[in-house]
Amino acid sequence: MRVRTAVIPVAGLGTRFLPATKSVPKEMLPVLDRPCVDYIVREAADAGIERIIFVTARGKDAMVDYFDSSPALEAHLKEHEKFDLLEKVVEAGRRVDVITIRQRKALGLGHAILTAKPIVGDEPFAILLGDDIVFAEKPVIGEMIKVFEKQQEAVVAIMEVPNEHTQRYGICAGKWENKQEMRVKQMVEKPHPKVAPSNFGIVGRYVVPAEIFALLEDTPPGKGGEIQLTDALHMLARMNKVVGFKFEGKRVDTGNALGLLHASMYQAFHRPDMRDAFLELLKEFQLPPTPVKQKSADK
Ligand code: UTP
């Protein structure tokens, strides 16, 4: 079955970004000059996704407005012949249909996905986390959809992480079927490096069959009453139905201040209209070279 829907859960509280997230959704914080979520939606649109389901919450309406038209602003830009800006403003909402549904309580990523069930129906769908940007030549979710359409099995994006960071990720282990695809046998949530079965961590891109909803319904709430997507995926892995996809691209977690800064710097460095000015700006932060100590034998 073709994948035409993407669910983007954005109902989390964003506590790592407080106090900013007291009134601004973290997904609306800018990476250079576009909100974080705009990068995610573009990736989905580039991959041929036709409808986006945002799982939102109270206080996240700015995100929905961003993908809607803005008649007064558009009229103003037209009147002042600022056509380049007008193009930027209308571009965001033009490529996909946006549907929203609210998660009434932040009961975890798995619960957020389950909230989208009445809209998704019985189709397979993509999931993109709203605070995980992947800079890549080809949209990573598009590459994953191709793998899904070949095998009709869940596909999760994986990347090699430093050993000392395994506690930040769901970790996958299994058998490589080719250079990029791993048949996942084991999935462990945030293991200590000493017991981690590998150093391949799952990041915020998934393509799943509708079967995931029944598994989520059967998933008991874990720590903090949250329902975890990883637990449902683990059940699929036990049935031998999960492929780990080692993607090509640069992934940045924009859910914390340093990650967001990293994403902006990455963009500035790679955008021809910004690069020179950015490199000039960086000079301000250059440390004086550390003097090289002479070895006593050289004296
Ligand atoms: P995170 O754990 O990164 O988001 O969830 P968070 O809970 O907002 O962040 P912190 O840890 O408090 O800073 C990953 C994704 O799942 C969504 C988040 O919005 C984020 O995009 N999510 C998480 C939900 O939609 N609902 C939830 O109940 C939990």
Keywords for this structure?
alpha/beta; single chain; globular; 23% strand; binds uridine 5'-triphosphate
Give a description of the structure.
The protein is of the alpha/beta class. It has one domain (5-285): Spore Coat Polysaccharide Biosynthesis Protein SpsA, Chain A (Alpha-Beta Complex). It is 33% helix and 23% strand. The protein has eleven helices and 13 strands. The strands form three sheets. The chain has a five-stranded mixed beta barrel with strand order 8-11-9-10-12. α5 packs across α9. The radius of gyration is 21 Å and the shape is globular. It starts with a strand and ends in a 17-residue tail after the last helix. The site of uridine 5'-triphosphate has 20 residues, from α5. Uridine 5'-triphosphate binds at residues 9-16, 55, 103, 106-109, 111-112, 129-131, 255.
Tally of extended strands?
13
Bound molecules: uridine 5'-triphosphate
Main sheet properties? 5 strands, mixed, barrel
Can you write the helix and strand succession as a string?
Answer: EEEHEHHHEHHEEHEEEEHHEEHH
The shape is: globular
Distance between the termini: 74 Å
Quote the beta fraction.
15-25%
- Low-pLDDT ranges: none
Q: Give me the secondary-structure category.
A: alpha/beta
The assembly state of the depicted protein chains is single chain
CATH superfamily: Spore Coat Polysaccharide Biosynthesis Protein SpsA, Chain A
User: Number of helical segments?
Assistant: 11
Q: Write down the CATH class.
A: Alpha Beta
Which fold name is given in CATH as the topology? Spore Coat Polysaccharide Biosynthesis Protein SpsA, Chain A
Structurally, how many domains make up the residues?
A: 1
C-alpha Rg (nearest Å)? 21 Å
Binned, the helix content reads 25-40%
CATH architecture: Alpha-Beta Complex
With strands numbered from the N-terminus, the spatial order across the biggest sheet is 8-11-9-10-12
Mean pLDDT: 92
